[in-house]
Each structure stands twice: as C-alpha cells, then as structure tokens.
C-alpha cells in the first residue's frame, strides 16, 4: 500500500508541486518586471550579470579566511549532493525510466562513496555552524532547520538503500525525496534556482556602473 | 493600527520589486555578510549583521508574498508588525549602517543587501522613525537648499575668501560654462579650500566652469533619510539650475553619496535621462592629467595612502582615477590592505556622522580604519569625500594619531606649478 502510494500518486503530486511551484516562484519575480535604469551607462548590464553569476562562486580574498568553515562545508555539501543527484547510477536509471527516457555514464563506486560522505559531512557541518555561530543562530528560521532535516533524511535513507537495509528502504528514500520536492518551492531551497537571478540583478547594476563585482 | 505605522508598512510593501523578491527568496541566512560589516566586526553584536537590518522588509514580504506567510496571517498565527519593531530597527538601519555596500560584495547569492537597507529606510522614514538630525537636515534642505541651512550669502563669502587666499577668480552663475560644479555645505563651511584649489587647477588647465548661487548643494538629505520624494525634489533642483545655466556637465564635488545620487540615482528619481553628463571631480581631474593639463611642481616624497569613499569607489565605480592622480604626485603611495571596492568604510557615511546618537558606535567602527592606516605607516591620508575627511580627522584625533588628512583636489593644487 505504502509502496504503491509512494511510487504512484505521491510521486505524481510531488512532480506537479515541484515543477509548478518553482515556475510560480520564478513568475512571481518576473511579473514585477525590471525598471529601466535611466542613468547614462558606463558599461554593460548583461556583461555584469554574467560576470557576477560566475565570480560569486569564489569567496572574496578579503574575507575568505574568516568564512572558510562555511565556504568549505558549503562546497562539500553542494558538490557532494550534485554528484549524487546526477551521477549516481541508481539516480541516472531513475531519471531515464521516469523522466527523460535517456541516461548518461555514472560515476564509479568509490566516487559515489566519497560524494555521499562529502554531502552528509558538509550538511552536518553547516548545521553545526548554524547552531554554534551567534549570527546564524539569530538569523535562522524554522524553515532553515526543516530544509536541513529533510535533506538529511534523503541522504540517510539513500545510505540505507546503498547498504540494502530492509526491503522497503528504496521506497523510504523515494518518500523522503518526495517530501523534499513538496517542500522545495515554498522554502529557501529555491536559492538553488534563484541565485542566478539575484546575482544577475546585482551584477547588472554594477555592470552599468562599469564595475565587475 | 495608527497612521504612521500604516504608512510605514504600506511604504515597505511598495518597495517590493523584482530584485527584492529575488533577493529575499534566495537568502539562506548564512551570515557571511556579517564578516564584511564594520559595525558587526567591531562590536561582534549579531544584530548588526547586514541582512538582519533588512528584517522589517522581509517581514512584510513574508506576510504578503509567501505561501507560509499568507497562510499564517490568514489563520491569525503571525504577529503583525508593530511600532516597536520599527523603532528597534531605526537604530540598526540609521546608526549601525552606512549603506557602504561592502556586504553586497561578498554575498554568495549575489544579494545587494545595501539596496534593501535603503528600502527599509524608506519604510522607517514613512513611519517617522528617522534620527532627528536627519529629519532637521531634510527640512533645511527643502527650505534653504542646504542641509546646514546655508544660503547664497554663505557661498559668496566663501568664494571671496578663497579668491583672496588663492588669487584666482572663482566664476559664479556663468551661463554657458562647460561645467557646473556643485558643492556640499560641509565643503563650504569646513573645507572651503576645495573651492580655491579647484579655481587654481581649472585656471591653469583652462577649464570653463561655474558655481551656482541659486542652488549649489550636491548632497541629498532625502537619500540619507530614506525619503524618495525629498530625494527627487532635491535632484530636480540640480537639474533645473544646470538647465538654466546651460552647462554641458555637472561636477560632483568631494562627497560620496552626492556622486552616487547625482550620477546614478537622480535620473531614476526624476524618471528622465539627464540632459548633461555627470562626473566626479576626480574623474575630470584625471582626464586633465591624461591630457597633460595639470603640471606638477615637484613630487611629494612623504608616504601617502588613499581612503576610498564607499559611494565613490564601491558604489560609484571611480577607483583608478584618484590613484592615477595621487601617483602623479606622491613618490611613496602605499595602499591600505583592503582597498578599492573592498575598502573598509570610515563609519561616517549614510548620515551616520550627522547622527549624534551613533557617535559611540561610529568610534568603535573606526577602529578598523585606524588599524588599516597604522599598517600603512603613511603620514598623509588622501580622500575624495568631505564627510570621510571629517570622520577620519575626528577618529584620528580620538585615537591620538597624528596623520594629516587632505582632500585630493587640495593635494593636487598644493603640488601644482
């Protein structure tokens, strides 16, 4: 019963909410439009937007040392998760069967294990930072912890599947993923998409002023 | 709900545009911006984390634009914004932020936090939560055309004094001049040598220029308060006088926010392109240097450093020009460790230097600048903003440091033939 529900109706609902929700959030930004900057431009807004989209992957050297913990844990988590999501053999099979109809080469097992360790450890370090640092403690909202909790459950259940603990572990993993998909559009997990527009807006403003930031 | 609070909330709602929605939606509360802020770094008080200063705007956005916020509000689970909330954030936005934008340089999501703090000030100002000094400056700017209440008489008196001191004619109200040079009241009162120095440079470089006695003020109290209506009104006065004098360009003097306002914001406040170009004084002086129209008497051998005014370098994009000018004169130019678009703010911008209540906090924030200056071992600090200059002079005096602070225009004039 649970397996049928997770594999059928809940999956369908999750996909609709995930895709529709993300589209709505993006539309909510686009519908506001962008006011034309009437100041005489010194440089290109487009070039600035593109530049900032790439430049912000690297922390500014002036503060890099102070935020090394967050930067390293952040990269560990995001790179690990990205590799797992798109290059783990079972995920590629799932995407091929359920979504796209085609696949691509998977990463080797040793890289799969390292990616999992990086993602889990990175996530726990980010949680630790959030709890220990007075700044992040002040800024954090329930949504931050819910996101971390859901991501942890997805990763942990994925590990259970890897070690084949219990017959229903694959369904539990899918179920946690569906919960994450249902929550995603209504949370700050949207940063996975909206970092592009935020960087672009700021980059464009400075680009017009002839600056690369 | 009282009218002031209602005005504040409605104004905050009006501030929500595409950029704000994108910024607030992508913030992950990582707190990295704190490490870029001189108020947080010098106090270690997490309340001064830049993104925390945006909280009133975020609250309104959550309530009106997000699924959970709308749900909680409709079920009566969300506490509505109170006057107390706004009062608490007045101190954070006006005393604990110079809108220097250093935080906007480091956000991994690319969020321009300073852009949103400026919007928070709009809401606070609409609700009446503005430091009294800024409110009074705004009133004087509207009534007299100067936040310090100066009139044409004060300008004429400074002009006469500088003509006598420097021995160069200072043109006033000359129709058809190429350049109209605006001034900040602070320059007229505290640093009138800027006017004499400019007269000397422009006379030797044969620049056609004028001052205006009808409206000379470059600063914009509306921007500092967070009141776009006042900002537009004051920008309109610059436009009117420049059009009346039929100038080709307007020179923004040594004042940070004046430059950003006239150069980048005024066309958007006024919703029209300006019929003249706008240059910061260092941009023009650097053009004259390039054209070989500034002749230096002899190189200056003492060590010199440069303090970047945030609105001119980080927010305005004028970074190389002052360095070119200083290097033309100074044989020993030493940069501070963080400079250019990652400079540390002196702590006086954004109206903070005018806000008496913020004095203690400003002095704490100045510790970073003092440390930077000490590290250069420079005896002379050059800057291109009179508010920065005043803040540096006061900060150094409090720390019993003896460095000499100079405006860049004066520095050039001093070393000309």
Describe the structure.
The complex is a heterodimer of chains A (213) and B (417). With 213 residues, chain A is mostly helical. Chain A has one domain (2-207): Fumarate Reductase Cytochrome B subunit, CATH 1.20.950. Chain A has helices spanning 2-7, 9-30, 45-55, 61-64, 68-87, 89-100, 109-132, 134-139, 142-162, 169-183, 191-208. The N and C termini of chain A lie far apart (54 Å). Chain B has three domains: 3-129, Fumarate Reductase Iron-sulfur Protein, Chain B, domain 2 (Orthogonal Bundle), CATH 1.10.1060; 134-288, Up-down Bundle (Glutathione S-transferase Yfyf (Class Pi), Chain A, domain 2), CATH 1.20.1050; 296-414, Rossmann fold. In chain B, 53% of the residues lie in helices and 8% in strands. In chain B, α4 (55-65) packs across α5 (67-74), α14 (228-244) packs across α15 and α18 crosses α19. Chain B is globular and about 75 Å long. At the A-B interface, α2, α8 and α11 of A face α2, α7 and α15 of B.
């Amino acid at each position: 019963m649970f397996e049928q529900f997770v594999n059928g109706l809940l999956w369908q609902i999750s996909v609709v909410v995930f895709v529709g929700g993300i589209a709505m959030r993006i539309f909510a930004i686009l519908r506001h439009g962008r006011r034309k900057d009437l100041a005489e431009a010194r440089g290109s807004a487009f070039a600035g937007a593109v530049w900032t989209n790439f430049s912000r992957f690297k922390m500014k050297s002036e503060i890099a040392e102070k935020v090394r913990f967050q930067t390293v844990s952040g990269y560990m988590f995001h790179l690990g998760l990205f590799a797992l999501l798109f290059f783990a053999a079972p995920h590629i099979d799932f995407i091929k069967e359920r979504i796209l109809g085609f696949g691509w080469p998977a990463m080797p097992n040793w890289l799969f294990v390292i990616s999992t360790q990086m993602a889990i450890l990175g996530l726990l370090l980010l949680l630790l930072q959030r709890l220990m640092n007075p700044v992040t403690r002040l800024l954090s909202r329930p949504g931050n912890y819910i996101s971390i909790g859901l991501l942890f459950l997805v990763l942990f259940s994925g590990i259970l599947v890897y070690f084949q603990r219990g017959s229903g572990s694959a369904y539990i993993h899918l179920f946690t993923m569906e919960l994450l998909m249902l929550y995603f559009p209504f949370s700050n997990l949207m940063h996975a998409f909206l970092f592009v527009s935020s960087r672009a807006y700021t980059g464009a403003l400075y680009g017009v002023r002839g600056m690369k930031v | 709900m009282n009218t002031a609070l209602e005005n504040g909330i409605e104004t905050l709602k009006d501030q929500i545009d595409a950029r704000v929605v994108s910024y607030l939606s992508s913030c992950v509360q990582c707190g990295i911006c704190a490490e870029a802020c001189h108020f947080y770094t010098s106090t270690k008080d997490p309340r001064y984390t830049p993104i925390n200063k945006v909280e009133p705007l975020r609250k309104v956005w959550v309530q009106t634009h997000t699924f959970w916020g709308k749900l909680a509000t409709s079920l009566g689970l969300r506490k509505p914004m109170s006057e107390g909330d706004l009062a608490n954030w007045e101190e954070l936005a006006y005393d604990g932020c110079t809108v220097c934008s250093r935080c906007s340089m480091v956000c991994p999501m690319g969020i321009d936090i300073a852009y949103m703090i400026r919007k928070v000030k709009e809401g606070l100002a609409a609700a009446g939560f503005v430091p009294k000094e800024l409110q009074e400056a705004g009133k004087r700017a509207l009534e007299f055309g100067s936040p310090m209440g100066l009139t044409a008489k004060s300008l004429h008196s400074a002009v006469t004094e500088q003509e006598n001191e420097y021995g160069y004619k200072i043109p006033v109200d000359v129709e058809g001049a190429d350049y109209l040079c605006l001034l900040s009241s602070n320059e007229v009162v505290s640093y009138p040598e800027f006017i004499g120095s400019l007269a000397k440079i422009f006379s030797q470089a044969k620049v056609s220029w004028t001052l205006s006695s009808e409206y000379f003020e470059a600063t914009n109290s509306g921007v500092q308060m967070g009141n776009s209506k006042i900002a537009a009104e004051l920008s309109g006065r610059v436009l009117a006088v420049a059009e009346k004098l039929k100038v080709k360009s307007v020179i923004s003097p040594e004042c940070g926010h004046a430059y950003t306002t006239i150069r980048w914001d005024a066309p958007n406040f006024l919703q029209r392109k300006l019929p003249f170009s706008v240059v910061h004084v260092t941009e023009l002086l650097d053009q004259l240097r390039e054209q070989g129209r500034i002749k230096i008497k002899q190189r200056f051998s003492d060590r010199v450093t440069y303090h970047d005014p945030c609105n001119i370098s980080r927010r305005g994009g004028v970074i190389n020009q002052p360095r070119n000018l200083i290097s033309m004169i100074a044989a020993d130019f030493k940069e501070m460790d963080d400079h250019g678009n990652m400079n540390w703010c002196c702590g006086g911008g954004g109206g903070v230097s005018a806000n008496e209540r913020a004095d203690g906090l400003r002095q704490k924030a100045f510790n970073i600048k003092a440390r930077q200056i000490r590290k250069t071992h420079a005896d002379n600090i050059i800057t291109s903003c009179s508010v920065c200059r005043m803040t540096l002079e006061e900060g150094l005096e409090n720390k019993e440091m003896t460095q000499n602070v100079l405006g860049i225009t004066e520095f050039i004039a001093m070393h000309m033939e």
